[in-house]
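Please predict the structure of the following assembly.
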Amino acid sequence: MPAGPSVLRRILRNRSATFGGTLLAIIVLAALIGLRFTPYDPVLMDVPNRLAEPGAQHVLGSDHYGRDIFSRILNGAHLSLLIGAVSVLLAVTGGLLLGLSAGFAGGWVDFLVMRLIDLMLAFPSVLLALGIVAIAGPSLFNVMLAVGIASIPTYTRMVRASVLTVRGLPYIEASRALGSSPLRTIGRHVVPNILAPLIVLATLGTAGAILTGAALSFLGLGAQPPTPEWGAMLSEARNYMRLGWWLTVFPGLAIGVTVLALNQLGDGLRDLLDPYLRNTV
Amino acid sequence: MSKRSRPNLISRRRFIKIGGTGAVAVLAASCVPATPAAPAAPTAAPAVKPTAAPAASGAGKPGGQIRYAMNNEPDSLDPAKTAQASAFNVMMNLYDTLIWQDPGDLQYKAGLAESWQSSADGLTHTFKLRKGVKFHDGTPFNAEAVKFNFDRYADPATKSPSSTAKLGPYAGTRVVDEFTAEVTLKTQYAAFYDSLAQTWLSMASPTAVKKFGDDFGRNPVGTGPMVFKEWVAKDRIVVVRNADYAWGPAFWNHTGPAYLEQITFVGISENGARLTAFESGELQVMETVPEGDFDRLKKSGKYQMVVARTPGSPMSIYMNTEKAPFNDINVRKAILHGLNRQELINAAFFGLYSAADTPIADNTLHHAKKGVGMYPYDMEKAKKLLDDAGWKAGPDGVRVKDGQKLVIDFVDLTTYEPKVVATQALLKPLGITVNVKVFDQATRVSMGHKGEGNMFSTALIDSDPGAIQLVFHSRNLGGFDWSRIKDADLDKLLDDQAKEPDAAKRAALLEQVVMKIMENAWVYPIYNFARLFGVSPKVKGFRTHPLGSYPYLYEVSLE
């Protein structure tokens, strides 16, 4: 690894990374607080105070059942983050396994894996996720599973390409020559060297996963009422959007800001970690 | 045209045929309508006044045209080939029935039949027909036409989704003379006149039916106040004034031709799009206004917002008695006592509907007052019932019995989600967890039929109270008997009332039916079903058929 300023300092010097990272940290913190503490019970109906405009009583207004929108967004934050994190973790794990075996083993393993991946890529990932949830049944967990599985092909291809790049490099050959087992070679030398692009892709992928998860919940396939998942909130509110703009605007904004934070962070990380870009900055 | 080709658009209100009984019920589906929340004060009046606006007396101004938006396009305009509410809507203008039900007193009045007589055994019915009536194609209306239509409706080869069942135990029609038709029935049939007053049994031109064959549904010819002009698929159906019309029922607000020169029916399934078109003034009448928007438009004071109550059975929750926990009567009773009806109506429907607590709505013939108020809201009693049934409060507040949590799957239509979510919130303090399971129409109906779930909901629209057999008779197990009731006594009562020609005796039988259902806590009625119309202030004389969903556009005029 090239010597230089510490990773943290480099991140801090990068504007998008700092901005995205800070925003994300705030969101994560809010999500953690929202798990426990919210101004109102997020599922408590208060019909006489339904559709209250944003104000002193309800910061972001109340919905058609009189539930406090701010409390719901806060309480639902961890769900969106969880969807993003779990599904990407799943996709990265799957992608690593498949990509490494395809890239490292080559031959018929490579052929089989890549044809499978081609098959999956033939479907738009949202469609694939939709299909999986339709089969597995609507639930938050199934959404994570579906989004994760649907994003495996991207990671697999990326990992495989990276493996192919490093496979022929002298230090891998050296490792082999020293008698390392293939697993050791992969674990000690291949994976660390393909980690950088993987981190960038995973960060950007988390944003996409949150968006897809919200979309599936919007379609009624994800979080079930009264869970205040953001996509589900949008879906419930759309029938009442003519009665109060705040019903749809704030959950939408919450999704937008989170995705923005992750995208910014991802962009910044790419600038930092991409060796070609790094030298030119 | 396949009726099932676009289930999302057309299945909003489904009519379900039940073989043999002659009852056809409308299963009100996604359109969630309303009536002002008036306390159901018990009155002595035998027939409850409909909520629709009274007939405008005095003359409206002839001329002009309106655009009328429904939430779907009909599948056919042949009374024999459709079962859709939207088709009924249009057909009411194109066809006449032999008799009409007066929305004022709910009695049957002369239509194409001037008078009629029933034999003492209730099996032979002789109709004296009005003279000088002509179909739109010039074919004269006579006893031959009555025979032609009834024979066609009764013929299994017609494969009618509603008319055959409505005609019930029809044996045949004899043409006594040109203007006298004698209809015979195989068995007694209490709902016969009620059926005759519905458009499913209206008079179509025999000449046109023969000429167009299967295409008659796209080229309808009747005797009604409006004449079919054109049908542009997925866009509009246009009908124009019948200048010769002079045979409407006496309770209409005027005689002679209709006021309006033209009516354009459009089907717009998306609520938002329909609302936008209505608010922009592009439409003069809109059906199925979402409750929240009804409230908003009403408050704006710019429109006539009409609540048209439908007769039949209220919107109710059916509890699956085959599965735990509702196989235990005490748990069902706990729901009847513990679910706050008015709060449910307020939370889910902006308080627009009136509460109902018995299975026959109070605007329906033979509504039984005896069952009203049997299960007042009483949280403590509900809790005690659950305690006694062995469901004890668990550590997380959810009740537990034998290690099982008190969890209920409420299966319903996606558009009915507010009802389910409100039920979930209202049952939570009782220690009951409700899972919201909302699906499209086909899925949720099939789940109800198979009993996959604990709670289901539907309303029933029919002017005859006997229609409730559809949801309570054991022959409909696997059909709409969603509470999965298999009770021989109830079956017998339902069968007996269907044949009882004497009104007082029939009312007594229906009261027994209602009491049996209520004592067993088989159903949780919620509110009186109604449909919500938005009407432009320029439109005068808007009121609806006793079935509630269908306006008499003949009476409508423009300012």
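The mean pLDDT of chain B is 87. Chain B touches chain A at residues 271-272, 275, 290, 292-293, 295-296, 343, 346-347, 414, 417-418, 420-422, 424-425, 435-436, 438 (CB under 8 Å).
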